[in-house]
Structure formats: structure tokens, C-alpha cells
Amino acid sequence: MPRVTIYCMQPYWRDGDRKLAHGIVREFSSEKAAVSAGRRAAQREAGALVYKVVGDPDFEDWSQPTAVAAFGDVPEITFNGKIASAPAEPAPKLYAT
User: Fold this and answer.
1) Residue 97 lies in a domain
2) For residue range 54-84, what is the model confidence (pLDDT) as tens digits?
3) Residue 91 domain-assigned?
């Protein structure tokens, strides 16, 4: 199977101790849909992180995640010891590239 890109949205909320807790990751086939879901989630929750992975699902061979956008309050995410980076568009709050 050819390599595919999967866009994921991870919502976050504040628990009883006001610490960030993560919700269930949702997968999308397009960046636009994932970013839209992230925006909506951040209106209801503390925040949301949108990221992508590229790989071959038949072999479960995936690249390291790359942050696409962050909305509201999200923890500092690291992948392989590096802070997640995101492009300058489309989110109002982004990680530096």
C-alpha cells in the first residue's frame, strides 16, 4: 500500500487539580478537517493539538508526528526529544518552527 498521511486531533481539558489531561485522539484524512475539529474542541475544552503522521498502515510503519496547529492550552509536546513544530498557518497559537 502507498504511504498515507493521517491527521490527528488530541483534545485537552483541565482536571480537578487544574492540570491538563488529554482526551481521545481522533483521526482525519485531511488537514482541513483536523484543524476545524481542533478549533471546535478548543472552544469546549482547554485546548487541542493537531498533528500528522505519514506511513504505511499495512506494515504499521509511521513517521514521527509533526505538529500542525495548537489551539488554547496544550502541554509542550516533544517527539523524539524535540519540541513539536508547526507552520505559521492556520492556527492562532502555534509552536515555533
Assistant:
1) no
2) 999 888 888 888 888 989 988 876 554 454 5
3) no
Asked if residue 47 is part of any domain, the answer here is yes
Q: How far is CA 76 from CA 29, 48, 94, 96, in A?
A: 25, 12, 11, 12
Overall domain count for the chain? 1
C-alpha 44/C-alpha 33 separation (Å) is 17
Confidence (pLDDT) at 52: 93
Range of the domain at 67: 4-83
Q: Is residue 90 part of a domain?
A: no
> Pick from 56, 63, 68: which is nearest to 8 by CA?
68
- Residue 62 belongs to what H/E stretch? strand 61-62
User: What distance in Å separates the CA atoms of residue 46 and residue 53, rounded to the nearest whole number?
Assistant: 24
Which pLDDT tens digit goes with each residue over 78-88? 554 454 544 33
- Please give the model's pTM, rounded to 2 decimal places: 0.75
